[in-house]
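Co-fold these.
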Amino acid sequence: MTSDGRRVRRLEDERLLRGLGRFADDVSRVGALHLRVVRAQAAHARLLSIDTGQAQALPGVTAVVTGEDVKDVAPIPVRLNVGGHDLSAFLQPVLAQDKVRYVGEPVAAVVAEDPYVAEDAAELVEVSYDDLGAVLDGETAMAAPALHEAGNVAAVLDLGYGDCAAAFAAADTVVALTLDVGRHSAVPMEPRGLVADYDAGTGRLEIWGATKVPVFNRRVLASMLGLPEHRIRLHAMDAGGGFGPRGEFYPEDFLVPWLARRLGRPVKWTEDRAEHLVAVNHSRQQRHRIEAAFAADGTLLGLRDDVVHDNGAYMRTHGVLVPELTLAMLPGPYRVPAYAGRARVVLTNKTPCGTYRAPGRFEGTFAREHLFDVAADRLGVDRVELRRRNLLRPEEIPHVRPLNTIGTDVVLDAGDYPKLLDTAVAHVAGWREEVAALRAEGRLAGLGLAVFLEKSGLGPHDTADVLVGADGTVRVHSGGTSLGQGIETVLAQIAAEPLGVDPRAVEVVNGDTELQPFGGGSWASRSTVVSGSAVRLAAEAVAGRAVRVAARVLGVPESELRLADGVIVGATPDVRLTLGEAAAACAPGSPHLAADEPAGLSARRTFEVEHMTYPYGVHVALAEVDQGTGGVRVRRYLVAYEVGRAINPTLVEGQLVGGVAQGIGGALMEEFRYDDNGQPLAATFMDYLVPTAAETPRVETIVTEDAPSPDNPLGVKGAGEGGLSAAGAAIANAVRDALGLPGGVGALPLSASRVIELLPSHVS
Amino acid sequence: MTSDGRRVRRLEDERLLRGLGRFADDVSRVGALHLRVVRAQAAHARLLSIDTGQAQALPGVTAVVTGEDVKDVAPIPVRLNVGGHDLSAFLQPVLAQDKVRYVGEPVAAVVAEDPYVAEDAAELVEVSYDDLGAVLDGETAMAAPALHEAGNVAAVLDLGYGDCAAAFAAADTVVALTLDVGRHSAVPMEPRGLVADYDAGTGRLEIWGATKVPVFNRRVLASMLGLPEHRIRLHAMDAGGGFGPRGEFYPEDFLVPWLARRLGRPVKWTEDRAEHLVAVNHSRQQRHRIEAAFAADGTLLGLRDDVVHDNGAYMRTHGVLVPELTLAMLPGPYRVPAYAGRARVVLTNKTPCGTYRAPGRFEGTFAREHLFDVAADRLGVDRVELRRRNLLRPEEIPHVRPLNTIGTDVVLDAGDYPKLLDTAVAHVAGWREEVAALRAEGRLAGLGLAVFLEKSGLGPHDTADVLVGADGTVRVHSGGTSLGQGIETVLAQIAAEPLGVDPRAVEVVNGDTELQPFGGGSWASRSTVVSGSAVRLAAEAVAGRAVRVAARVLGVPESELRLADGVIVGATPDVRLTLGEAAAACAPGSPHLAADEPAGLSARRTFEVEHMTYPYGVHVALAEVDQGTGGVRVRRYLVAYEVGRAINPTLVEGQLVGGVAQGIGGALMEEFRYDDNGQPLAATFMDYLVPTAAETPRVETIVTEDAPSPDNPLGVKGAGEGGLSAAGAAIANAVRDALGLPGGVGALPLSASRVIELLPSHVS
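Predicted complex below.
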């Protein structure tokens, strides 16, 4: 039975569709207290006093804690310390100390017998502020009063290679654009939540809801609490979406378990939407000053980008990952002889930033691909042709780009970029006619195309255990976590393949730090690649061991046996042993076990990988602009994407479609705006607009498997982000095309109010 | 640092003494329902009807189930199927089918929103019985109306060797006694309890409270419920005593998880004391017709015993283990040239029986040692001298006794029985004077001595995992369970020794089927021997691996390194690596791991053993009989016990002292009596008398380590039962001595009412 490549129905849907999923808020512990965070109402102020008296006095309130109670607790460390920057001066404390630096920053926490009392009490905590004036613009922040003693520039990153100055000097045409990407982020259906229960008798702490990188978060928490790691057990739960922000270590990830331990009662916290919109990592906000040097024939000679990355008030767990990725991925799938990228990571009085699905690529692809459209028009070259001319050709792959990102060398591992471009262009041939027809009706329609490079499968490793029971059932203890992406199904397929069993007979346990203490978590489109490869190695090891044990049981040479359909079979039909029987033969005390051979038919394997693997794709959008309102409607959308190998094509398609929906949000609707005092203007879904089914067209997908990755045993490349990476670019290009703009659109999101200013009628 | 042999304070007391232990009833699940069992009120009757209408109608009642609902569920299987007897016709169903066979048998179960409603509703279940007449006497039951279609004799066991007929024919003196051992059992401070929670989304079932043999119980439950084993997780809890009955698979162990799954709600059940006294395994009830053949010089020539073993209404999980052990252990530490033991296992309308601490040895030692005292008097030989003359001498050890029990050959592995006897006799030299002084005051005082053989360390194997964290902490996932015996401390010591760490740095997790799926549980004085040896092997493997990894890290040959005090040290002080650093070097992705070497500094090892190991001991009691009431007071008590090697002498002594207290109960006070209709007369602690501190003297102990077991790496023999084994014998002998009886005491317990009939004044 072959599992790889099958459109197996999602195993997790058995429970999710019946309402039997278990999310963080579904965890209830008898006697639990409920936490409510008191959040700063000033964007930048010195804390004069925090009066907790009234809150403490409210019946049902168990405790109110402030920064004073945690002044000896270390700030939250960086998880991904790329580039070796010292960010220690910019880290966020778990509760504000002396100053607050953004509206929404935790300044106190109330614990009460029920969540309503906790919320009421939180409103009774009186915080007095001495306003220090909000620093809100990334550009001007560099010279503004300092948020931190170390200033407002956390890091300056320079990535590049080649002689850019010479390239630009030699250019026939230089095209430059200034482009802003709006501040927005993921808004998963389910806000965050956490439940912690401390057993004072054994000193063990159990935590539910840390769904993303539970093993890392355990390490951080152990260090902050001064507990041995093995005393802490984190359980990932079902999660209503991850997309980057969920599961990073936030102040609440300390406060909830710390208070559970301190108070000797379980503590539960469920984030509400208003909190979510100011508390979780924001993302995306960058200003790009990008310029490209072209020869007369459209050959790209050099690329420069100067990025101001507005990171908000603190450096959080991602450190400078997003600006670094922005720069490292900016050259994309193109032949870029010389490149100079600079990013200044600036702090402002806004919610701190982290990753959001396709971090750096959404921003950089928009900048580059929008520039290319402007350049093509300027050069008088067809926009597709300009790209085709500059794409790396298959014979140039693998392509070592003299850059380093997230501690890895950039080696574009496998691909035929022009072929995928041609496939996409052929697919949308009819769309051009549709645009023409719409225009003939006097409507503002346009087509936008963008080519992009993705990255996925960040190592350095992940570990998995595969275990077979005496009843023949297979279990996987994986280091991944299930954020809704279907990873249980994919890992079950990956484990099932070498064992020849039905993926339905495989149960995948994700994100339990006790069962898999070495898990790397699910992020960066790494689960199928890295966790999946670990599962494959472990399943292969189990299969090999099953055959070895079967040889002992059956008394035939191993070479005469093979594993097929969950049965080890020999030369004749009577020579057979099921996997379950092989597992039974590995029970302790079995005569079939060799000396010191551990009991149980199981194996743990680690998959290690040095480089990321680089999928790539093409987005095409057909958009129409309403001349009266400036509203943009995306009428058609195509994602063509190369994944090397699709373990489950349906899930890859699902990832792409979902990504496009979020891409439409980032391109047209979603934006965290602030007033001049740093008060957030988008603190509910009335103001923070996310696309619904009405705003999302039927997305067409082409998933190709032309270039399997040579760097992992599955040949896969991650597919988690490719639906989003080029959405800003493709939609911006379509709007520009619809409006016939000579230059760029200037900024995302292309909200109606912004687009109306771009309308020819407005310009004229 | 040496851990073995140290009087390390019990690690578990840190929580237990602070009230932070977690017992089954401490587990509460949100939304839990509460179970109450409806128990038969007739001893032997056909079920005419069960009317659940009124119970169902009571507000708060969720479900009422009867035998009809579980008629397709297999009966509870035998766990220890010794001797190959087919007991399938005598197994207990989870709820009575058609007939009830003892008062207390589960006939229905009520589940309600709170335990009080459940109890009220249980009383509203109307059961109509057609009385079939109670069969209550083991002796007459063999010819009485059948309880089961297959009759009332479940099995007849014959064990023996040599030519007994010839031995008796050649005898100078034959001494015969008929002795009854009263029905009693363990009454741990904490009655049983169980909590089950089924997650319909994942199909996983979690159960708390199965503290004894959770891995076995999981297998049984999986089979009865039709679930894969790995979907069920059993957690042993702290337990207020085990002693044999606790943790076996009882009807409630099915009903609670089955109803949790069926109703989709957690279900909790806590046994009350009245239930406990009729529901858990009874034990001990046997009639012995024992006779011994002696040469004129007191040399034992042959031994015969005919045992009627009253097993109550069903064969439970122990099958015929207790009668088999009774026969197999009866020859004890003596040279018995010919032996013939027969046991008839008879069913009666009383609570079914199982093991109680020192099963078969309490009974058999009483029979043999009481007989020896009568024989010594008859032969005119000193009672101690008669024993000394017949004890196996050290040069006869190891002694292969041509018997088989629990599937193992009886090989008395190591010992110097006469030496221990001499030690004990020397210790109590002054006690003879005390008896004389009491007698001189006209008081009825007597000294009783008994020598006994114990058995322990039943295999065939146990499995343990030892894991070292990067913070240097050590964790053990053991197959044992913690019933109060201090096993956490002992296993921590055993793991600490080869690693050279403080036992306090070792955390032992017992009885979690997910963490240790191969555990054999704690029973039969096996934990230190078998689970402990597995822990030692795993710890040694971890130590070895730590040194190997250190050699790679430090770049020196393994041979130059050794592990001491938790540090791997080389020839010079700078060559050193802590265990934690070695563990960090085993993290996934570490360059110090070999290819396919699983991540993590851990090891799983199985200890296998063919034979049991046989500790032995001497009990001496100084008792006084109140001439007015017949009340017996134990004034002094000595246990001398050989354990091979005491990992923690304090805990061995504690085991011995606790055993004596229970022995006093069985010898003098505890008895389950029934009226003629089979109604239990001891259903509360008003009637079932257990010794308190007032009835228990200060127990003196001598723990010797003269004869380490050659069969395990620790040299240990189990110490769980030796405080109890000879208590009936020693106290009966003391009473007989006090009363100057020419024959035997006839029966245990020697309650005041029984003793008064033995008083010389009464006899005369």
